[in-house]
Every structure is written in C-alpha cells, then in structure tokens.
Design a protein that fits this description.
Elements lengths: L1 E6 L2 H11 L6 E6 L9 E2 L7 H10 L4 E4 L2 H5 L2 H7 L4 E2 L7 H4 L1 H10 L7 E4 L2 H8 L11 E5 L8 E4 L2 H15 L7 E5 L4 E10 L3 E3 L3 E3 L2 E3 L3 E4 L4 E4 L6 H21 L5 E11 L2 E8 L6 H6 L6 H10 L13 E8 L16 H5 L4 E5 L2 E3 L5 E3 L3 E9 L2 H12 L16
Parallel strand pairs: 1-2, 1-4, 2-3, 4-5
Antiparallel strand pairs: 6-9, 7-8, 7-9, 10-11, 10-16, 12-15, 13-14, 15-18, 16-17, 18-22, 19-22, 20-21
C-alpha cells in the first residue's frame, strides 16, 4: 500500500515510524514532513492546510490510505474532500471535528448529551466575558477560573487564572496570544481539581478501542510552572487509571459521546482524544481532541504491537470490534526538548548534537518535531518543540531513566526541557 501521512511534527514522525514497521506498506509519504521524518518517509512539500493540492497528490500518486495527523487539516474538511474524490482517509469529518475546532460547540455538545464536564459560559466578545466574570458562577473574585479561546490555538489557548484579575488579563491578551479568529468567542469554566489524564481511542463510528492512558505535562517549567505549551512530555502507565475508573469513563463519557455523535449525524471515525480531570466527584471532560495528541502519540505508538494499517482498515470498515489490538506491557515516557524562547518566539537554526548517541540508548526512539538540515547535512532546530525522546520499559521508572539518559546525549544552544516528567 502507498501511505500518505499529513503533518510535520513529532506526532507524524511517530505515525510514519509505526507505518514503516508494516509489511503492507510499500511507500510512505509525509506532507510536509520534517528533517527527521525524511529518514522513514518521502517528505512532500505540501502544507497540511493545502487540501486541494493534497487531494491532487493523493490521486496522482495512487495513495491507498491517508492518515491525517493534525487538527487544522481536519477542521478544514480534508476528510470530506478526500472522500468526495473516492480517496480512503482516516479521520473525522469537518462536522465531527468541531468537537475540537470550537470549544463552545464541544461544551454545548456535552450539555446536550449529559456528559460530565465543568460548569461554563460562552461569551461572544472579550467585553461580555469580563461581565460574565462579575456575575453568576464567577461572582467570587478570589476563585480560580479557566479562560479558553473558542478556536484552534495549538495548545496555547487555555489559561488557568488564579483569580478574577488574572482572568481579565487573560481575556484581554487572548487575541494577541492565539489570533483574533481563535479568540472570537471566549469560554469561561470553573476550575476543576484532581488528576489530569488523557484517554485516546480508535473509533469506527460505532465501536471503539482504547489506547493506554497517558498523562501530559503542559507547562513549560518544572513543577507545572510558567505558560502552557503544546506539551513538554508524556507518560503511559497502567497506574494512571484503575479498571473501575476506566469502566466509569466508558459508561459516562465515551459511550454517550459516540452515541451523541451518531444521533447528531456526525459519526466519529478516526482517533478520539478525551482530556479528563479525575475529580473527587468522578471523571470530568476537560476537552475533546479529534486526532492523536502530540507528544502523547510518541509514548503510545511505541507500545503498539498490532499493525497500524490493520487498525486503519478496521476503522474505515466499521469492524474495530473484531480486531484485537495488542500493546506492549509496561510503560513509556517522552521528554520534549524545546528551543530557547519557546513557547514564545523560538530560536532556530542551531546545530543539534548527539542524536545518534541518544538513539543508541536501549529502548529509546528519537522523534523529530521541529528540525531541518543545513547545507552541511546537519540537523538544525526549526521550531519550538524540536525533539521528542521516547523510551519504553517494564516499569515507568525504567522508561524515564532510559529517556533521560538519552536526553543527556543531546544538546544545542538554548535547549530547554523538564526534568520532572512523570514525577
């Protein structure tokens, strides 16, 4: 089969790596890809938001299966357009992608289908958002409140404000932070307390198959300090969720979500990501994503033992309930290495040292997120999150030890990372 992966980050590198292990894959292409992805796939210079050109490429190159990595392509309707042209593609429709593309849509969807989540209100302008803070559920000026941009914001559109003053500052700065389109509406939420867990699953419109539970570390600084990022590291470990907690999430959240999608004629096919807060009152949905997370994907896919192409086929054919998806036992961890200046304006163009040495550490994969090559063929930094160092182990401690041992082999000027992932 000829495979096309759409995207350019560490997530897409991990997806291409998984496809490369399949005996069914004849050729893998990635659009646009990055410096590291070029080692396992042919990088095609087509941006992920150029839907028409991607369709033309898939048609002209007889692509048998397309896997969409990121949310922007899905929100623009890449799946609808590929299907209209008779092309086989894994991912939700544009209508179903609203679960991520609009925080307001997602919260209203949860309300319609009785899915437990935080109390919220949607404001249609910054001014109205500030008025909402001074009334109703947000009347206490000393209480924390979550401020969310309605639209896609690359993981940077959520601010957990400690009090009303910080919330007002976040509202006023949101458009500058994520752009006026994403901040056209503002969603305000009560601040939930508990342990945050990410639960991803393959969905075929009716059936689902869970992936190992993961935990992301969003903030740039150790001890969960500083601004939110796209993710500074993840772990997978069986201890993250008990079987009882998993059963509760399935009954109260996953089944109502998929039933709600079907009822609203937006059946969900692809990868569904549910961000959860495990509160004293049970699991609550923080957000939906309609694709693999980054860097959750890296930690998850290194444990996948079933052929990813077989999973894609079952997803498209509506037969996930007949496929046993197997996972490597144990745990995994990903440490993100970021450029200086991230999550603001990152420093780029620095030569990266030690990648081969890191990849030689037992149990380690090095995934490229923001790299390219210079005229001398050396890998250089080309984005905010640059490298994801991922390791597996029989225990979480082993996985983390291996990952950090590999991290110690890598360096470039201004490199930053967290030493407390998984702690």
């Amino acid at each position: 089969m000829n495979i096309l992966v759409v995207g350019s980050g560490g997530r897409e590198h991990a997806i291409c790596h998984s496809f490369s292990k399949s005996k069914q894959a004849a050729k893998i292409s990635c659009a646009p890809g990055n410096g590291g992805i070029a080692g396992v796939a042919e990088c095609i210079p087509i941006n992920a938001d150029d839907i028409a050109t991607l369709c033309e490429f898939a048609t002209s190159k007889s692509i048998d299966l397309t896997f969409v990595g990121g949310e922007i392509s899905l929100a623009l309707g890449i799946v609808d357009e590929f299907q209209r042209r008779g092309l086989r593609v894994v991912g939700p429709s544009k209508a179903a992608a609203q679960l991520e593309a609009s925080k307001a849509f997602a919260k209203d969807f949860m309300a319609r289908h009785g899915i437990p989540t935080a109390k919220y209100v949607t404001a249609h302008s910054p001014g109205f958002a500030i008025l909402e803070l001074e009334s109703g559920d947000f009347g206490d000026a000393a209480k924390p409140v979550v401020v969310k941009a309605d639209g896609l914001a690359a993981g940077k559109g959520v601010v957990i404000a400690k009090n009303r003053a910080e919330a007002i500052d976040a509202i006023n700065e949101m458009a500058t932070l994520v752009g006026t389109a994403a901040a056209d509406k503002i969603v305000l939420e009560e601040c939930l307390v508990g342990r945050e867990i990410s639960l991803l699953m393959f969905c075929d419109g009716e059936h689902f198959s869970l992936m190992p539970p993961t935990r992301d570390h969003k903030r740039i600084g150790e001890g969960d300090t500083g601004p939110n990022t796209g993710g500074m590291g993840t772990i997978t470990d069986a201890s993250l969720l008990s079987s009882e907690q998993t059963d509760a999430i399935i009954e109260k959240i996953i089944k109502p979500t998929l039933h709600g999608c079907a009822k609203e004629d937006i059946p969900f096919r692809g990868v569904l990501f549910i961000g959860l807060m495990m509160t004293a009152d049970g699991p609550r949905v923080l957000e939906y994503n309609v694709r693999f997370g980054d860097p959750e994907t890296q930690s998850i896919l290194v444990r996948l033992e079933t052929d990813l192409i077989d999973i894609c086929e079952a997803t498209l054919n509506g037969s996930l309930d007949t496929l046993e998806i197997k996972w490597r036992t144990g745990s995994s961890a990903t440490i993100v290495l970021a450029a200086g200046g991230y999550p603001g304006k990152p420093r780029t163009g620095d030569v990266i040292q030690g990648l081969d040495e890191a990849a030689n550490v037992d149990g380690v994969n090095v995934f490229h997120a923001g790299t390219s090559r210079n005229a001398d063929g050396e890998f250089i930094t080309a984005g905010g999150r640059v490298i994801g160092v991922t390791a597996v182990g029989d225990t979480l401690e082993v996985a983390l030890t291996r990952a950090y041992s590999a991290v110690d082999e890598i360096n470039w000027p201004g490199m930053q990372f967290r030493r407390d992932i998984g702690k």
